[in-house]
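Why this split exists: single-chain examples teach little about how molecules sit against one another. For that reason, every record in the complexes split bundles all components of an assembly together and asks for one structure covering all of them. Below is a record exactly as it appears in the raw files.
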Amino acid sequence: MTVTLLVCSTCRAGEPVPEGTLPAGTRLVAALEALGPVPGVTLRPVECLSACSQGCAVALSAPGRWSYVYGRMSEADAPQILAGAAAYAAAPDGIVPWRERPEIFRKQSLARIPPIGEPT
Amino acid sequence: MTVTLLVCSTCRAGEPVPEGTLPAGTRLVAALEALGPVPGVTLRPVECLSACSQGCAVALSAPGRWSYVYGRMSEADAPQILAGAAAYAAAPDGIVPWRERPEIFRKQSLARIPPIGEPT
């Protein structure tokens, strides 16, 4: 299944953004793009995931699956973020076994939301 | 449209749960249920929204709409939570004008996720 990796491209991560520099979220998007596309993962920059105090924020979602939001991400985390996104895409139900999740996903969860419109 | 109000029923909100007492999340669910159903809003208790350090957590979602997650909620917030859920249900696109959102939603956002599977 193709899943979506949402990245807040406007996040300042609590830092000032001096003229001539880019916000942390924009730099994170660039770092993810520079690592090249990951099969089954569509990178989608979005304006604000409303997790500003815990930015940079990223989210994983796909139809019929739990969505996950992670915070306090930086450019240096780009390889782990893509590895975690690939694992999410590869898991038949999107639920990656705990030990197989990147450490930043295990420790920096902001929230998860169950599949939308599914019965309890 | 009928929207879903997800409430983490297992949340301890960082408190110990002595024997014979109920976790904060369970008490929040009970407080919401006691206020009676809200037209257009389905209350759905879930086990863990993975926002444990910011609990109690609730989320609003519906097909084709942005999902919202809010944290640091307690029983005392039940009326505002239901008012916010009703506003979300009533808004044609689920996007409630900022000033019409309950204060706890304006100040205690944990994250939002765009409609799943929608194009950018």
